[in-house]
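User: Please write out a complete single-protein record containing the residue sequence and its fold in token form, without commentary.

AI:
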Amino acid sequence: MGRLLLCAALVAAASVAVLGGGVASAAKAGNHAVFTDPAGDAQSSSTTNYAADIRQVDVTSTDAGKLTFAVTLFDADAKLVSGDELSVYVDIDRKSSTGDANGFEYQFLATGSTSGTTSFLFCTLIAPRSCQEFVSGNAHDTKTATSTHVVDFAITSNVAAFDFAVIEAYTQPSGTTTLYDFAPDTGRYSFETKSDPDKDGLFGSGDKCPTVPARGKSDPNNNGCPGPFKFIGTKEAHFSGLVFPSFMRLTELRVTGAPTGAKVAFSSPRGGDSATVNGSGTARSKRIKGDFRYGSVITIRITKPQFVGVYLKETIVKSGLRVVRRLCIPATGGAPVKCSDKLKGS
């Protein structure tokens, strides 16, 4: 079964040479663009043998990486029929040296049938070529008006920009000649996804935390989220001292079990200082020594880049130092908070 009859006035318009026009225009707004193709430039040989006329291509991207192509077509059937093939070719890396002979890495293919249904394939063009069916619900052929329908494809993407072209091809079931409409008529369209709201250089589905910037050492697994970070394991301070009825005479205050190079800030009523953790995981205060009344408070902060730090608040009692509060210092910065696994990041 071939195409339905296309009215004579429209056939005359469709007889324009497919390569005669210029690059189609584009109107962009954010991460949505509408690319228009001249009406009536599809090839035809009769009122029942013609390629569906591509009128426009809508491309939409989301911050999460969803990418949708919606191709508006004009033909009497208002659907793809047997002999119809609509392809969206994508040059995902914008390099002519990769992909197929034309530099395209992917093809989204919609094919009509005698039963009236449309099949959809997602094809990888890098040799060896392979195709698989689109996930159910991610591609459609929908009548939108008399003689008008929209074929859409939805995928996920993690790129900043890409080039693409759309080709409609029709081969009459009883014929051997294939008729085409190309969009654009020459060259390619270009689209910027603008799907990096946190400006960390990762786009779309490649950024698992699209609203939280994370780069370099703060994102060691390069998934767009801060972390994963290690926890500094120090639980308490260690000391040496002498006990008196109303005070303790501290002779040494140190922390252990911290990563080499971590910074330790000591604070007390008698002042404070800072130290760097040595190769054995130890740091000592040089200033917090002398006589301290019982109840005096000593605080210790242990931090290191890309680690969840430790905040210790300890009081001096006759039995020594008692931890009254232990909090974690987020690796991303900020005030100490209750320790939890979520501080590790992902």
Remarks:
- Residues 7-30 have pLDDT under 50 and may be disordered.
- The chain has two domains: 8-192, 230-344.
- Residues 230-344 form one domain.
